[in-house]
Write a structure and sequence with these properties.
By secondary structure, this protein is of the alpha/beta class. The chain is 57% helix and 12% strand. The protein has a 5-stranded parallel β-sheet with strand order 2-1-3-4-5.
């Protein structure tokens, strides 16, 4: 669990962009973020692309086209803090569509900005860690499926039993110092090539 000092240090390391009309509310937000010590840039309207180093976006959603924003954010996924004046169904839908990590209401006051800033960055970090775990799990499952298919291919090509085919696959991966999934892909490709050419197989194991 992050302590208070670590939370503040994380906020000070942030590279924030405020996308808000140039008015008093926007000035209040920018000034407060600068007092906190983080790097902050202000612009209006939302630019076609975000600077590559922006990791936190304060976005005035009421005057922003959600579809445009989603396109801008497609390749870059910062923590998003929605800025709203009222809670209409349209605004609430925009917040949901943008998957905002925090919300602050206008008129903007320093009280509450820090809380939403910290919460948004925490939620964003948690989502990234969770997505990384899911991706790793998907890669693991994909690798297992490739290994299973390669074991079947070795049995079909060489007439090996399952244990011997798996052992051969593992030994090849160890010798070449690569992942078993990588060796499995090569074996599967070789097997498919042999089948397309009508090369006789030693085994007749069915899938």
């Amino acid at each position: 669990m992050a302590g208070p000092n670590r939370i503040i240090e994380d906020l000070r390391r942030a590279r924030a962009m405020v996308v808000h009309p140039r008015d008093e509310d926007g000035d209040v937000l920018v000034a407060h973020l600068k007092r906190l010590g983080c790097e902050v840039r202000a612009t209006w309207p939302l630019p076609p692309t975000l600077p590559a180093d922006v990791d936190t976006l304060f976005l005035h959603v009421e005057e922003t086209q959600v579809e445009q924003a989603l396109q801008v954010l497609e390749s870059q996924k910062p923590a998003i803090i929605a800025i709203v004046t009222y809670e209409s169904p349209t605004v609430l839908q925009a917040i949901i569509d943008l998957n905002a990590h925090g919300v602050i209401s206008k008129p903007l006051r320093p009280l509450g900005i820090l809380t939403q800033f910290a919460l948004a960055r925490y939620r964003h970090g948690y989502e990234k860690r969770l997505a990384g775990k899911v991706l790793k799990l998907e890669e693991t499952l994909k690798g297992r499926r490739l290994v299973e298919k390669a074991v079947w291919a070795l049995r079909n090509m060489n007439g090996l039993d399952e244990e011997a085919a798996y052992k051969l696959l593992r030994e090849q991966a160890t010798t070449k110092r690569v992942a078993m999934a990588q060796v499995a892909e090569a074996i599967i490709a070789a097997h498919e090539t042999m089948r397309s050419l009508g090369v006789p197989m030693a085994g007749r194991t069915e899938t």
